[in-house]
């Protein structure tokens, strides 16, 4: 039997799992029940596992022969979104929803575990299953790595279901795929006073506004236009009422790019614009810059291997536009070679046409079979090559 044929046998089982996970979504860092459910499934299969980072799970399937170790990763957290779908497996946890499809990732990896468990006598090496918490807050991957998830690992493979890709197609393209995602907070300090006497104060509303405007010159005037990048100020709050000069302003924002060198330059560029703009207006401003996730860069060799795996399971390999969103799978790719596959789940006939994070988000469950098969096929191909 081929891996796809074995995955087909487990398909209904995997759909059932996905619906169960969908019913009980949990917030990042709080995936206790989800983690228990995963453990239960692994126990049923007789696969050894351990809990790390509170709600993360690391499990291993050892092949008959020794060899390399390949890691397969699925993230398990949900989002603060109230589900609007009216299906029988609708979210039962008010205000939370698997609106990014991580319920699919968990069940596809469990499906792959079933397949790999059946064929372990044909594997040269070890498959490590990583069930990772807190992807949506960009903390989980770092926590899992600190807990030793990558120790002894030669390569890693991850997946994300993707609403822009038709079910049946998958992207495993090489190179930068998803952007770095960092965040910043700016504190502006001016001097309060009466709105009728601006000269006696230092207006934090004006300074904050000028900072927003000047930050836009970084991407438009300072970076190479052939290098996609974003600097967005998402919130600005300053002032308390109409006739008072604001003494303080707070801005928050995010940066995105596909080039690690630009990412490294962002803090310095932002700091200069923020501080110099403030001093132009006699104010002070402090930038706090924190790193979220790196750029997801798919390794060429692993991408080629994944293309072969896709062909073996009968799915279509496609190339898509890069995505400005971030994925903390990048943290693993910074350490070991690997690929993040984007698995198509779109099917308008099944209402699976809403974007990631939408309250009506849903998937064509046929993709689950492709996902399970792809995880398993890639693991086998990586270990036996
Ligand atoms: Ni996601």
Walk me through what this model shows.
There is one protein chain. This protein has 385 residues and is of the alpha/beta class. It contains 10 helices and 16 strands. The strands form 4 sheets. Strands 1-2-4-3-5-16-6-15 form an 8-stranded mixed sheet. A 4-stranded antiparallel sheet has the order 10-12-8-13, with helices on one face. A two-stranded antiparallel ribbon has the order 7-14. A hairpin with a 3-residue loop joins strand 1 and strand 2. Helix 1 packs antiparallel against helix 10, helix 2 runs antiparallel to helix 4 and helix 4 packs across helix 10. The model has no long low-confidence stretch (mean pLDDT 97). The protein binds nickel (II) ion. Nickel (II) ion binds next to loops.
Each distinct ligand: nickel (II) ion
Mean pLDDT figure: 97
Summarize the amount of helix as a percent range.
Answer: 25-40%
The strand line-up of the biggest sheet is: 1-2-4-3-5-16-6-15
The H-and-E topology, N to C, reads as HHHEEEHEHEEEEEHEEEHEEHEHEH
Largest sheet: 8 strands, mixed
Task: Kindly state the number of beta strands.
Answer: 16
Task: Please state the CA-atom Rg, rounded to the nearest Å.
Answer: 24 Å
| Cα-to-Cα separation, first versus last residue | 19 Å
Q: If helices are DSSP runs of H or I spanning 4 or more residues, what is the number of helices?
A: 10
Helix/strand/pairing category: alpha/beta
What gross morphology would you assign? elongated
pLDDT < 50 runs, ≥5 residues:
none
Question: How much strand?
Answer: 25-35%
């Amino acid at each position: 039997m081929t891996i796809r044929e074995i995955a087909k046998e487990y398909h209904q089982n995997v759909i059932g799992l996905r619906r169960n996970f969908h019913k009980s979504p949990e917030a990042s860092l709080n995936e206790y029940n989800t983690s228990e459910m995963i453990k239960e499934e692994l126990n049923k299969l007789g696969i050894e596992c351990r809990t790390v980072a509170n709600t993360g799970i690391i499990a291993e399937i050892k092949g008959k022969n020794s060899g390399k170790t390949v890691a397969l990763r699925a993230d398990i957290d949900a989002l603060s979104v109230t589900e609007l779908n009216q299906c029988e497996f609708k979210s039962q946890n008010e205000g939370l929803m698997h609106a990014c499809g991580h319920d699919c990732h968990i069940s596809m990896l469990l499906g792959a575990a079933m397949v790999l468990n059946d064929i372990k006598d044909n594997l040269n090496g070890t498959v490590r299953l990583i069930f990772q918490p807190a992807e949506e807050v960009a903390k989980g991957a770092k926590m899992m790595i600190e807990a030793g998830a990558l120790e002894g690992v030669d390569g890693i493979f991850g997946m994300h279901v993707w609403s822009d890709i038709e079910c049946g197609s998958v992207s495993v393209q090489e190179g930068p795929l998803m952007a770095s995602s960092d965040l910043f907070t700016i504190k502006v300090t001016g001097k309060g006073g009466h709105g009728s006497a601006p000269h006696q104060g230092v207006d934090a509303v004006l300074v904050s506004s000028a900072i927003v405007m000047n930050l836009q010159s970084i991407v438009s005037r300072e970076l190479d236009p052939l290098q996609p990048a974003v600097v967005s100020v998402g919130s600005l709050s300053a002032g308390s009422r109409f006739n008072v000069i604001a003494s303080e302003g707070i801005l928050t924002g995010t940066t995105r790019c596909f080039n690690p060198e630009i990412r490294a330059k962002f803090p310095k560029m932002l700091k200069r614009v923020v501080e110099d703009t403030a001093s132009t207006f006699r104010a002070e401003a402090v930038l706090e810059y924190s790193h979220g996730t790196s750029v997801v860069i798919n390794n060429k060799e692993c991408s080629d291997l994944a293309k072969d795996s896709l062909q073996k399971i009968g799915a279509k390999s496609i190339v898509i536009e890069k995505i400005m969103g971030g994925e903390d799978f990048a943290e693993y790719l910074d350490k070991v070679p690997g690929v993040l596959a984007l698995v198509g789940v779109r099917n308008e006939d099944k209402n699976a046409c809403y974007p990631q994070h939408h309250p009506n988000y849903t998937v064509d469950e046929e993709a689950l079979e492709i996902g399970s098969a792809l995880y398993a096929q890639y693991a086998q191909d990586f270990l036996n090559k």
